[in-house]
Amino acid sequence: MQVPHFSMKKASNMPTLKCMHVVFFFCKGHPYLGATPYNVFTCSCCGSSCTEYKCPYSTKDLTIEEGWEKTDFLEIDEKLRLKRSHKYHFKVKSQMGICGYKITFFVVWTCKGKPHIEVIVFDNVFWRDILSILIVFFKSYVQRVLLHFRPICYCFFCSKPCLEPEEFDDEEENSVQCQSCSLWCHWACTGSAVNLHAVSRQKCLVQQM
C-alpha cells in the first residue's frame, strides 16, 4: 500500500518526524469551522504539515502518468499537479487555514507505480477570501437554521455582508446602521459624500448618497 510507503519514505529522511492521525481540528477564532486532515506530520526542524490522500478507482491498474487524464482533479501545467480550479484545491487550502499549518502533502496513489506527491503551500490571501465566504455561509444558512439567531445584515450599497468587529482586519470593512431607515452599509461604501454623524442626527444615510 502506497500511503504507509509515503510516510516511511519521509521518516527515513527526517529522524524526528512523527505521523499522527487527527480526528478533528477547530478553527481558532471561528469554532464553528473545522477540518479533518488524513494525517499530520510533525518535525522538529520543519514544523507541522497536513496530508491529503487520493486513490482514484478509475486509475487503480495504471501508473499516475498513464491514468491522470481519467481523473477530474489533475492537470498538466509544465508538470503534473492538482487542478487549481478543483474543489480539492479549495479543500486543501482551507484545511491549512483552519489547522494553522503552512504545507500540505497532496498524495495520489494507485496499485501500480510510484505515488504522485505534490507540496501545496498555504496562501494567506486565498484563505482570507475563503474565510469570509465560510463565515457568510455559516451565518446566512447554518446558524439561522440551527440556532435561530438574528439574520446577517447586508450592505445596502454593495450587497456584501456587514461583518462583526472580530471577523475582519481592515477598518474599511467596518459598518454603520442608519437610525432613520435601519439599513446597514460599509463605511467604505458610503464614500466621502456621506456624513457619518448623520446617524446621530437621524438623517437617512441612503438619501444622502
Automatic annotation (TrEMBL):
Biological process terms in GO annotation: DNA repair
InterPro entries: NF-kappa-B_Signaling_Reg, PDDEXK-like_dom_sf, Restrct_endonuc-II-like
UniProt name for this protein: Zinc finger PHD-type domain-containing protein
Origin species: Pocillopora damicornis (Cauliflower coral)
